[in-house]
Amino acid sequence: MKHYELKYEFNTLRFLGYNKDSSLGYFYDARNRKIIVFNISKNKEALEYFRKLTGYIGLPSRREKFLDVYRIFELLGGKPSTEWRAIRVSISHSPRKVTEKKLVDFLLSNFGELDISFKTRHQVTLFYKIFTELVEATYSAILARLNDVSVIKEEHAQKIISKIDSMRSEYRGTKIPR
């Protein structure tokens, strides 16, 4: 999934697809380099979080995409870092309300102001670096919530990936060159 403004490929966010009867789903866990198989009916909540996450990444407003992903992370029980909290407070409150010393220090030393304006390339680049960390942590929290999962052995993993790719190409009406 490519983020258009960031020009960053979220390689770690990989929902590989379903089996033919849609009873099992497959995620790629990039951190451990494994394919995880899970029962779809027992993991509807985790799949819904994943759909929301991928939808929020594509929102045009930097403010909304960050706040929505941050909310998912909090709903999943994650503990936000100082950087994430600082950006959340900065983009959701007036500068007068940013009073916690750690957050003020972070914002002033990294963004030069309490209200992130996105007027400089440095601010935009730093924002997206921190946003990427938040997205990937949220994805890991979603994977951690999956129930009844198993890791697919390496020799079977490649077969599953090629099968899912052929199913996707059939759906699109194109053939994958072999």
Structure explained in plain terms:
- The protein is of the alpha+beta class and 178 residues long.
- 53% of the residues lie in helices and 13% in strands.
- It has six helices and six strands, in the order E-E-E-E-E-H-H-H-H-H-E-H.
- A four-stranded antiparallel sheet has the order 3-4-5-6. A two-stranded antiparallel ribbon has the order 1-2.
- The longest helix has 25 residues, at 121-145.
- The model has no long low-confidence stretch (mean pLDDT 82).
Layout of helices and strands:
Elements: E1 2-3, E2 8-9, E3 13-18, E4 24-29, E5 34-39, H1 44-57, H2 62-75, H3 82-92, H4 101-111, H5 121-145, E6 150-151, H6 154-172
Antiparallel strand pairs: 1-2, 3-4, 4-5, 5-6
Key features?
single chain; 178 residues; alpha+beta; four-stranded antiparallel β-sheet; two-stranded antiparallel ribbon; elongated
